[in-house]
Amino acid sequence: MQIIEYEHLLIFGLIAIVAWVLAIYFWPRMLLYVFKRAILVKGFGDGPIPVNTLYTEPQAFFADPFSLPASAPKVATSGVNRDTLLTLGWLDLGKGAQILHVPDFSSRYYSVQFTDPSKNTNFAYVGKRTTGTSAGDYLVTGPGWQGTVPPGMKQISSPNNSVLVIGRILVYSDSDLSTAYDLSKQIQLTPLSGWQPSQ
User: Which of 133, 128, 58 is nearest to 88 (CA)?
Assistant: First the structure.
């Protein structure tokens, strides 16, 4: 009788361990899937953000985060952020390499983070602490990309064709919001196939 009880405990313990390992493995991926759906379907509550497009949260959301519309997804309302504007996008590099352009930030803090959703790991950053604040162009390529990096451009190699992009731009004060917003709108993506070097 006691042996049967131990067998049940052993089986229960093994099931609990397997469930825990699966939860640890799949939980980040499930969260990123929810995040992806929120970006591509609702954006910041004012419509979807197309793939391979960056979108900055509206100034009104940043200025008054407690009065967001009911249509705003939880992604936009889950963390009240009072010092950096968010810019979001989801890349599909299977459609081709993308060029990220950042303007001259004149020593202002900013960061553009690239996340591999299959592993929930950040694999690259562009920003004040890593690349400086001067204007620049960065070629974002998927795994196995074959091609030539345009002159003067740095390559960011992604381990996955699907990439979550999160940009953050420092806002010094309420009166600085429109300046920071204008800068954030200049962070843009262009397909390599349609890119023309500036004269």
Answer: 58
Domain residue limits at 65: 40-194
Q: Give the model's confidence band at 92: pLDDT under 50 very low, under 70 low, under 90 confident, else very high.
A: very high
b/e per residue 23-52 (b: at least 16 CB within 10 A)? eeeeeeeeebeebbebbeebbbbbeebeeb
Q: Is residue 32 part of a domain?
A: no
pLDDT number for residue 78: 47
Half-sphere exposure of 184 (CA within 13 A, CB side): 29
Report yes or no on 10 lying in a domain: no
Nearest of 132, 82, 95 to residue 110 by alpha carbon: 132
CATH code where residue 50 lies: 2.60.40.1610
74 falls within a domain: yes
Tell me the pairing of strands 98-102 and 136-141. Answer: antiparallel
- Let me know if residue 62 belongs to a domain: yes
Average pLDDT, the chain: 82
Q: What's the total number of domains in the chain? A: 1
Task: Show the CA angle centred on residue 26, arms to residues 25 and 27, nearest 5°.
Answer: 105
pTM score: 0.76
